[in-house]
Amino acid sequence: MNAEEVWKKLITKSMKNPLVLKTKRGLNFKLVSNGECLTVYKSEIEPSSKLKIPRSIYKNNFEKVFPYYERWKTGEKGLSKELTALTVNSVYIMATIKSIKK
To answer: How many CA atoms lie within 13 A of 51 on its CB side?
Structure first.
């Protein structure tokens, strides 16, 4: 699946019902879509991410991070710095991709 296909699935799935997902470290977060972007919220399920305010994920940021998924999945050392330089939402983006590409 390419970035466009995964993006569309995430938008569709999270419009119907919020998705509760986990980061690589096991922190829960809620993903909601308004049809154009994804928004990450703190989850009511513990352990939850420590988000103070919701974070929006836009398609252009998603597409920048998507090509790194396979490297992230294998646990490549030093990759998190590279991803954080692209967007502070990379942790959430990777977890959303994982939920579709299982």
So the answer is: 23
pLDDT tens across 7-61, in order? 999 999 999 899 999 999 999 999 999 999 999 999 999 999 999 999 999 999 9
pTM of the model: 0.93
DSSP annotation string for 69-84: HHHHHTT-TTHHHHHH
Determine phi and psi for 18, rounding to 5 degrees.
-60, 140
Specify whether the CB–CB gap between 86 and 61 falls below 8 A.
yes
Contact 32, 18 (CB under 8 A): yes
For 20, other C-beta atoms within 10 Å of its C-beta total: 15
